[in-house]
């Protein structure tokens, strides 16, 4: 397990861009919430789930590329208002692998030469702390792939050095980056942030957090 605080000489973060994956359909949430899109569901402070996730990523990176479905105008508009660069994919795209590939192809074409890594976050994970994102990005100065770990459980966001981007661009389907992680290995960064493992899967997930905050 890697602990960044034991490496005090490596304090300057890389120039890192953010990738926010927000193209999922959230069928479980929609089925339990009368068809509502979980990315648009309000948190306790009224901020939509995906807007909170975008704000955290923007606070820790130089720019954020958000991947949405071409048939989800409301999420795309919200992310554009939040300052993200929105890239849409075919609604028939099959899962996280396709979203990651689209994002990687886009940043390979548009990222300046000074960008060292990308930080991939999920649109349904609104409780990650900005400082956690910054620590993961910082660790990517030393390691090709870095993921945070909270109480033994690996979470998000995950940082990928630029050399890994072509492998992400070749992904497809719903397996996400698992094949890339298996090929290159993952450096795990211990964090004290439960948000790295907390996503919104059903309305109960939001209700539980609201209850805890009261």
From TrEMBL:
Domain MobA-like NTP transferase: residue ranges: 18-184
Origin superkingdom: Bacteria
EC number: 2.7.7.77
SUPFAM superfamilies to which the protein is assigned, alphabetical: Nucleotide-diphospho-sugar transferases
Enzyme type, top EC level: transferase
A GO molecular-function annotation: molybdenum cofactor guanylyltransferase activity
Keyword Cell membrane: no
Protein name according to UniProt: Molybdenum cofactor guanylyltransferase
Organism: Achromobacter mucicolens
